[in-house]
Every structure is written in structure tokens, then in C-alpha cells.
């Protein structure tokens, strides 16, 4: 039985527990004598806190402790990139849902009742709803230092010359909405504090154990070695679990009450108090020749990061860096602004700015193609990247550029030609969108991952990786790579629960980076383990390594009976003081972009390409859009797990469809109007079209076995493909998402 | 002070000791109470041993012990690929220089006198000089099992169809000579045996510590754990130190005498009793169109491996696999034979078969170009590999194919055009040759390397690598990579002396593999060390890794005073039971070629390209060739150490010039006629032309930082470039190397 698993559709390592209901998510944790924690949250988005009265609440039976900022003079701020979030609001609120008090009670019911007994006197301030208002000189400051948090630039070639060469110049403004990541499991956790060791242990899902560890440590003013973050099974993430949620509150209350504590967010709390996808305003001015060459591309991106920075500075400039699409353009000028408002803060969400950008550039590309009378496919193929292309950041793409293959194969698998020809039914349309997505943080951020493998005395493998499996399957990827290198069955591997006490940093499960980072770290660990096994077998068996064969947990002399099990080898090696433990890391370098131009010779390690073709039918009476079919052709270098690629592609497409047609967290004057799943609409299985995923494997990407990531790029082309298909069907161009029936009807009418 | 050293011309880590005379080579070892070992060697290449009389020699004062095969009934054979070499010849000799007896004496002088007192009675057998004779049915067998040791095949496309498409078909036979690798230091070593532990310790230079370890262990019938091979400073190698030489004899005599022992080969002994470059007969039949397309390529390679296999099977089939050069040819048929004769055995030498093949194919390419009236440069550019080309083994070259750049840049830097135009002086000529060379063993051989880095309590680094530095600079490469990853000065690194007792396998210093293998293993080790350092610093400094900066043996918080030295970190980590030790391996996979066709989708991990242009003046009165200038353009992906690349290029070119014009170990009836440096001519500094090396860096090779190896490809194009230049100068084509003045004069006369 061969066991090398790379390229095979093996069962996910966590699937059995999930299917049998044995998987323990954070809300499933029950510790003895737990207290339940509840935050009292501000109803006013921007207000001075004049007085907080907790006396009535304190009197409630079952309430053990209530604290406000007043009681906690020493607290530090927290936050992903900038420490601009208060653990408890002290002087003013900056957005609806800011925590003002923490309640510890013997039951969740008591805590909720106590919450209603807290009384706060506010002095309301002007609420900044719009980033354009926030950028005005006379706008009130939300934080010290100005409402424009940061801005970034992009410069390539000569933009004036580019416009001078154009036959046609078109400018459009596109707007994207505020979206909730909507992991099914809301924020939750339990915690305990050991006064002996002064160590806090917190069980709460996170996309990045070590970042949560240090954010909590900073907030509490202790060494990170005093914080242990333990990873439960994660009930979805999509960017929302990059920010700290319950962790600091839990740690604080565990110490103050001296008891174990638990906190579970309601859906409304999750929607109002945790991050969103950034709404963006993206203006693109493009120059093009009638022959179909794009000569100039000028872009402005304004991102509404809400009341707090979170990942905002990175999200918005990533939108800028991805705002030209996968097209060869010599002359580029761009600028982005990350702006504070009094809205619920924006942070990371699948695609991380590149999703918003893709809606804009793929709409613009379609508009340009139509204006010069060229087929959108031909226009994309004419301008699309190939090996040797230079990105807007000046990076030469020397390997793994499968864009054209994704376009060609998507067109072939779709009804593109047929729908274009059968122009009889005006309501049917087909749209295409192609995107690229840089894997990993790139940009000189010193990112890395580490994985450790141990052979136990019984020959099983124990694997330590802090990489968060948010459902995308990174642990299965790790298992497959180890299986491939050591020709060892996945069944014999035991994954330790993620924690910061015994594991090293694996970086975040975000930025579509785990395939590259933890994949390569794992391959390095496994190859070192293979070398260690060969070393000891060489000495024990007296056979040189080309004569040795490794299979199913044994190493044998080829063509002979002689061999050793992994277990025997582990015991022998341990007896020599050399236990079979191998650790591998991956610590690549990228280049920090130039501040003036964004130039970075190695901006990202690899780029994933995805072309989607959407086939839609639009009902011009109701404005309803039915997406009939989506073909997605993804260039992921090498499919380590083809079925997982398909799963990511389908899940991503569902999110993209929600973005295109329905999802919208509506905030008016800072107040979320639809913090629930009855008014916040997401696609259900009935909304989903048939999805066909085609895997393109372009060569020589730097990931393990030439793989690239798929997590985020899976969703990015969907919205523009659908919007382009709507335009194809009924001739109206939606430039502001989502394309609700109301918006479509309005557009149809104004066209008539 | 920045210390990242990749791409810089840093001092070699071993250069100071070498320059100051402090480097200890094997002949420099003196142990207390040593005995001196001398082998009595057969004068007859093929003879039955009827009687050995050691009695007179034993009586000599100072002789401690003499042994023959008779006294050592239990000895096993040894040998690199096939165990066909006897430690002491028992029944017959197979080549001149086979050892028949071993003498241990109190001085080398006594041992030599004893050697002359040994008397052996032989019955002489037919001596097979030529492989073509060896292949005949009635030839006497040198070993059981036939004189054809093995044969290999190469098949691609349809060779008949290829010839049918040709406008012109040409067949030529090329012959290469027997060459001595000629490391300046002859084989030597010391050994001791510990009866307590039963461990043999042998100090003797080798290109591959662990292979020598197991070859000696097998020969002595003990576990490899009982053999410790220690690496002295190596006085050159060039392939000659792949085979065992003194090691087994020393181990044996150390045990039998109970004393420390030493053995140093004379130059004649080294030339007669150790490996040579395989003489080869290479027949090429090519089809070409008048438009310059090569349509078919049929090749036969016959390699004379002498009396023993050594690396012969691999050398000869590597010649076959490289016999079509770096050219796109759809239809290929090839066959190779590795053949025993009674000559001194052939083994590994720089280029390992590919050198001989290149002389043949680059001569044939020039002949074809001339016949169809096309400039040789144009012909090569027209047919040369580019990204996407398919090798004769069926491997698609998806990355790092800089062949055309090497041709173009070599032409530009040379006087190629000028000499071609100035046709006035008929005696001046210019010749070009382009080659490719697969890095590493490839072909599915499970090759790997390992490197270990430790941070000591004082902050210095101790590095353990078993990679043999034969002067090419692999230890400097290791130091540069560690310096690059850890931003650490090379001065703070301490390389432990290579040995098998404490180090894991790094594979051989051969096959141009160490840059890829030990380079990548080192990078993996260093990146893991970087992760460990960040991990401990994160906990100690309470700072997240993007806020940390590593430099000159310290890790500091950016913009702050706080930091830790490596030494402090090492002590802290050790106190936690986690000493700062990182081990990295590189264990890539290649594909075993199909037996019938040689097909292998991943035959080698990377290919180095080298184009040389030789400018010569030929004296038609004396036949003397003066090489005036050689331009070498090498595509090595990325120059980790540009000066070392130049050094390898110049050294390789010197060897290639020797092969082209003078070197020739002449064996008649099995007897070497010139086992000395007065009759065996090699180039001196006066023979050397000006050499200009141009570094081409093609992208995305799999080595560290995109590097490829240079060791062997440095020499491969030189001989054909010179021979092509001679033809260009005086119109005679030398098809049998070396092109001595006699041969040139004879060719000139026969042309007249």
C-alpha cells in the first residue's frame, strides 16, 4: 500500500469528529464553577461618556463582579496593526457596540439582566457616516492625529504619456458595501488564571495564535510567556477571527474574579462589535487604444475603516496594489486612503481589499472592451499577464503565470460563445472576470511558519503546528505533505491541539499564505525527519540510503527482509540521546515597497489567478437575478488536494454571489439596522448555481510541490463576473454593490 | 554593519589557514608510534597469481607485518557501485597495480625495500586493451558475468521519421582519451583501531564521508557505526576521491598490527592504481535540413571502464543522456555500453561522461553547421533550448534556461565576429561550444543533504556539515547562506571538522550538487534557527516578530534599545531545555528513467548552461596551438559568490584545455607508459589564455536563492570550443583527443 498523499482526495483529518459531532468548538467548553461574562455595549456611535452607574446591576443576585474603565486604571489599548482600541471605553465611544462595562455572573441569563440595569449618561457628538465627510477639514476627530489613518501610492511609467497615447479615456466610480464575514460560530471562549504561575489560559478560536497571544499580553501589560492561547475547533473565520474579541475580557475577568469564565457573543454582538469588510469607493480613469491596448490606468481608493484601524491600513493598500488587475499596463498612478468613521470597524475579510478592487477593475475592463467594440475575452487575453509581465509594483513574473490558461479553459467549459450568439433572449447574459492575488503578506513583512514532527516510541507521528485550520484544510495539507515525504499513512498522525505554550509561530491563516508557509515549513520538517530516519537506519542496518526504502512506517533494505519500524528507530535514536524530532521553518524574504511608487522587486512570493464566467438570467419585471452557472478556472500551481480546491472554489463563489447580489450591513448614523440573519441576507443553497471548477497547474511556483494558495482568490472574481453578466443580459451597468432587485429595477427604468 | 553575504565576494572560510600553511592535509598527519603501510602491486594487468613469497621481505629489519589474501580469508570486496574490487588480489590480477600484499614497517623507506623483496609467480593471460575487443564473443572474461557491464537506452520520437525529414545525414565517430584527475595531493591517510570500542578511525580525504564509511564497513564486515571517517583538508579531488583508496588498507593494518598506521601514495601509484576519466568512443549520426533544423540524432557511446566498475555505469549513461547537447531534437535514439578491459579502472572525473559527450556533440554541431552553410552561432541559437524545451529524457524545462543568453553574451564579449571577418590570416580561428549539465545525481536516486547550526553560549555559531570542501568553496557557500538568513558575520562561525561520528550525510561533493543540496539544507537549517531565535525573543522581549530586527548576532526591538545577543538567547533557551540547535535537510525527488527509453519527467533538478568561445592561433609548421583567449558565459541561476564562479570557470577551462591539447595517460597492453608528471603533460600557467567569465542569472532554479551548480559545467565546453577553433583556423577537424601537435601536423598533411 503506497501512502504518498499529495495530489489525492484524502479525507480531511478533522472530518470524522465534525461529522460525528465530537468536534469541540469554543461555545462547547464547560469548566467547573464557571462565571459567565457579558459586555455592556454603547448604543451611541460617537458620544462622551458622562457617567456610568452600575449600582443597580451590582445588586442583582448572581452578579459577582462588574467593572468599568474607572476601576481599571492601568489598561493598555489593543489592536491588530495600531493599538487604537480600548478594552473598555473610558471617555467616549467611537462606534456603536464599544464595550463600557464587563459583567461576571453565575449564569448567562443573570448577566443579560444585569446588562439592562446599567445606566450610562452620554453627550452625543457628530456621527461621521461617510469617509468623504471624515476627510473634510472641519470634520471632528475620531482619534487624535486625524481621520485619514494613512495613504499609499502606486506609480509606474508616465501616466500623462499613457493618457496621451489613448484613443479613448473613460472614468468610472465603483462602490462596494459593508459585508459581514458571518462565520457560523460567533465569538466565544473560556479562560482561567493561575495565580501561582501568573499564567492566563484562554480557549478561543483565532486565525493566528501568536498574534492573539501578544495582543492580549500587551493589553494586560504582561509578558507573552504568561499568556497561553489554545485553539478549539474553529467554526469559520473568513478574516473575522484576526482581531481579538472575547480574549482580553475573559483574561481580565478570570483574574479579577479568581474563577473560570466563559463568554459567547450573540449574533448581533458579533455583527455590531467585530470587524466588517471595508466599504470602498474606487475611481478608475483608464486610457485605451481602439486596437485594444490599455495605455494608462489611474486609480483612487478610499476605504472606510470605521472606528478602528484593525487591518485597515493593509486592506486598503492591498486594494490599491491589486487595482490594475492581471493586465500589462505601462503607465499607472494610484493613491489610497484609509479613513476613520464612526461606523463599526472594518478589518480583514476574504480577499482583503483585492475583492473590492476586482469588482472595480473587472467592471472597468468590461466597460472598456464594450466601448472599443472588442469581445471582453479577447480584450483580457490581449492584455493579460504572461510569464515575464511586470506588475504595477514592478515585480517581474518569472514563473507560474497561468492566467491565459484560466481564461481559455473557462471559456471552453462555459456557454460563453453560445450565449453571446443566441442574442434572441435579451435577459440571458454571460460575464467574465479574471483576477490575480498575491500569496502571503509579501511587501517585506518578515513572515514565517514552523512545523514540528516527532516519531513516538510506537511509531506514530505527533505533529505540532500552530497553523489555524479554519475549515480550509491546512492540517490535511500538513498531513499530506508528511505522508508524501515519509510515505506514511495519514491515519498514523496525531495533531496536537494548537496552543502557544508548546508551539512556535505559524503565522496567520489569512493572506492565502498557509499552503506556501506552513506547507513549505512542513516539507522542510518532513525532509529533515526523512534524513534522520535514513541516518539511524544506515547505522543500524549497515545499508546505504539508496538501498533503503521507506514505506508505511518502516524502513527496509530493498529486496531483503531486514528493516526497522519507525517505532523501533525512535526508541534506538532516543537511547542515543537523539530523539526523532524534526522541526522545519519557512522564512522567505520579500521587498518592502517604495513609499513614493510602491516599487517592490519581489512584492509577493507567488500569484494565484482565477477566471470565472457567470451565466445569469435577469427578470426585468422584478429585478431578480438568477445565476444559472459559474465556471471557475483557478491556477493554483499544483493541487495538493483537488477536492479541497473545488471546495474552496465553491465556498468562495457563494460568498462572491452574496457580495454581488444581496449582502449588505446597513449602517445609518452609525447604527446597524440589520444585525441579524433575517434582514442581513446571505445566499442559501437555493440561491447557488451549478459551479464547475477547473484546476490549472502552471509551473514552478515556490509553494510545496509548486502549489499556490486558493483561499481568497476563490471568491474574488465572482461579483464582477455576475455584474458583467447582468450588463450583458439587460444592458445596465451596476457600479454600486450589491445589485439588489431594487437597484436593478431602478437602473432599468432610468435606462428606459 | 550589514552582514548578509549572498552575492558577495567574501573571503573563503578556509583561505587563511591555507595561505599561512596551517591547513592540515592527510600527508601532514603524524601520530605517535606510527607504522608505515605500503602495498605491493601487480606489474601484470591480467595474470593468474600462482605463488606469493613474502618470506624475504618479512625478514627485513623494521618490517612488522606483511599480509596477503591468503592470510585474510574473510575479506569482502568493495567498490562504488558494484563490489568488484578485491582488497588484496587472491587468484588473479585484472589491472596493473592491483594490490597483492600489504606491508607494515617502521619507516616508509623500510616498507619500500620490503616491497622489492616480495616475489610473485604469475601466469599471464590475454590483456584486453580495447573495449571493442572486450565486447567480442571470444574475449576472455575479466569478471564473471561478461565484459559488458551494462547498457542504457535513449528513445524519443521516431528516429526513422527524423532521418526521412533530413536534407542531409552525417555520421562521425569521436574518441576521447584517458585522463588523470591529478589532484596535487596524492591519496594518503592515517588510521587507528580501538580494541575496546572496536571503532576504526580513519583520517583520509574523501568526496563523500558517509559513502567511504559504508564502503569500508562492508569491506571489513562491520557495522558502519564502527567506522569513523574524518576529513582532513582536501588537496584537490576532481572525482578521484570518490573511490576508496588507502582507507581499507589502513583500517585493516591498524587492527592487525594494533598500532597507528599511515599510508601515502606515490604519484605513480595514484596514476596507476586509482580511477581515470573514461576513454569513450562516441558515434553520432545526425539528420538536418538545409534550413537548419536538426531532425534526427542517433548516438552510440562505448565507455572503457577498465578493470573495475567504480562509477562507470553512471558515467557512461550520463554521457548518453547528455549526448544530444542543449538542442531541441524531436527524434532521438541512443545506446551506451560500459565495458570492462584490463586497463586501469575509470571512474568519476569532472563532467562525469558529459564532458566526453560534449566534445562529440559540439564537434558534430559545428560540422553540421558548416555543411549546411550556416554560422555555428546562428545554428546553435536556432536549435538551442529555451523555456519549455523538452530534453531527450522527456523532461520539460520550465525554468532557468539561460542558454541563449550565454551564447549571445559570449559572442558579444569575444572577438567572434571580428575573427570571422578578418579571414586574411588563415591560422587564426574562433570556435564556440555550448553545453548543458544536469545538477545532482537526478534519475530518481534518493539523494539528500543535511546541515546543523548551533548557537553557542558565547553567541558564536557552530556548524556541522559533512559536505566535502574540495577547494570549490562549499563551506563558504554554507557560511554565506547562514550569514544571509541570520544577518550574521561569517567571522563568528566555526566549522567542525567533517566526520561521520557526529554528522549526518551531506552526500557527495560531485555531480555539481552541493550548491543545490547542501545549499538548500543549510538555508532550511538557518531559517529554522531564525524561527527559533524569533520565538525566544518574542517571549523574552514581549515584541512581535515584525517589530524585531536581527543583525550582527543580536535581535533587537526596532527603534528601541531593548534586545538580546545570540549568546544570551542561547543561554535562556538552554535553561528552558530547548538549546538553539537547528538542523535542515534537502531531500528532493527525481524520477527514475524508463529502461527502454530513458524517459524521466524530472530527470534532474536543474540544468546549468555554459557557452565558451575560444580564440586560437595554430602554427601549421609545428602543429602547436596557442589558445589566446576564452570567453565563458555561464548560466548559474544566481551567483552566491561571483568570484568563486569565476574561479571555477577558470580552473575548469584549464582542465578543458588540457583535455583538448595535451593530457593523455597512455596505456599499452595494460601498462601505463607515463605515470609521472614529466611525461603526462598538463597545462601550466604559461599555457593558459586570458579567460573572461560572464555570469548569466536565469530565473527560478530550485537551488538556494535560485542558484545552480558550476563545478563540472565549468570545464565541459572548453575542449570542443578549442577543437572547433582549430578547424576554423586551419580547416582540419580533430576527432580524437588530445589534439597534439603530431596529430594536427598529420591532419594538415593528409589534407594537403
What does the model show?
The structure is a homodimer of 752-residue chains. The first copy, chain A, is of the alpha+beta class. Helices cover 28% and strands 25% of the residues of chain A. Chain A has a 7-stranded mixed beta sheet, with helices on both faces. A 5-stranded mixed beta sheet of chain A has the order 7-16-15-14-8. In chain A, a hairpin with a 2-residue loop joins strand 22 and strand 23 (554-557). At the A-B interface, helix 6, helix 15 and strand 25 of A face helix 6, helix 15 and strand 25 of B. Chains A, B: It comes from Orenia metallireducens.
CATH topology of the domain at 31-125 and 187-264 in chain A: Aldehyde Oxidoreductase, domain 3
For this structure, what is the CATH homologous superfamily of the domain at 31-125 and 187-264 in chain A? Aldehyde oxidase/xanthine dehydrogenase, a/b hammerhead
Count up the helices of chain A.
19
- The CATH first-level class of the domain at 31-125 and 187-264 in chain A comes to Alpha Beta
**What share of the residues of chain A does DSSP label as strand, in percent?**
15-25%
CATH architecture of the domain at 31-125 and 187-264 in chain A: Alpha-Beta Complex
Domain Aldehyde oxidase/xanthine dehydrogenase a/b hammerhead (chains A, B): 20-126
Protein name (chains A, B): CO or xanthine dehydrogenase, Mo-binding subunit
GO molecular function, one term (chains A, B): oxidoreductase activity
Pfam family, one (chains A, B): Ald_Xan_dh_C
